[in-house]
Design goal:
Elements: E1 2-6, H1 10-21, E2 25-30, E3 48-51, H2 58-67, E4 71-74, H3 83-92, E5 96-99, H4 105-121, E6 128-135, H5 145-155, E7 163-167, E8 181-188, E9 194-201, E10 206-213, H6 217-230, E11 235-237, H7 239-244
Parallel strand pairs: 1-2, 1-3, 3-4, 4-5, 5-11, 6-8, 7-8
Antiparallel strand pairs: 6-9, 9-10
Helix pairs in contact: 1-6, 2-3, 4-5
Amino acid sequence: MKVAIIGYGKMGHEIERVLLQRGHTVALIIDYNNTENLNTQSLAGIDVAIEFTTPTTAFDNIMTCLKAGVAVVSGTTGWIERLPEAQNLCRELNGAFMYSSNYSLGVNIAFRINRRLAELMNAYSVYDVDIEEIHHTQKKDAPSGTAITLATDAIARLERKESWHCTEPQKGEQSHHTADSIEIISLREGSVPGTHTVRYESEDDILEVKHTLKSRSALATGAVVAAEFICGKKGVFTMDDLFTE
């Protein structure tokens, strides 16, 4: 594949390493200091763009790629209120687009476990559920997109839950449980790549599903595998499509 990397921070560098390791060509790199170079001309001949930038720039980056006929894999979080718009444009243009809040293969397996666990726990209202996520102090959004995905998937399967809310203890916010809402506890510590725990608790016991990311390499590898998957395809995809092919 000939790949464009959009966003050349720590994740972008790791994605570049994985791409080269897997025999692909990095044909274009876009970062904050050359954003004007992301255009139809520079994207000519690119097979897939892998986009990890910021919540304020992600949507426009994706639009530019889709309008240029380039498939896009995006892992930027914090902008998903515009995700349906991006997906609709992809369909209109007969393009290819995949978004995931987390490209770690392990996390996506955890997503599946979380959905099944919520289905099982729906019958047992003695258990309350909360989610804890821990990330490095430079992460811009809270809660994490991964935690939102976990919460949203659980809410869709737990009749007693209607919404989620976030507390950030470092900002002095106090934890608070409500019967119809899932609490997401967001912690920012050191250089932690990402830890997510779904916790069901009753008066008698605690059941936890936990995923701990050891390095960004897992995210980068998953994003590159996703790019390989959508290359040459048309449509709107998720990581579930990758697992079920």
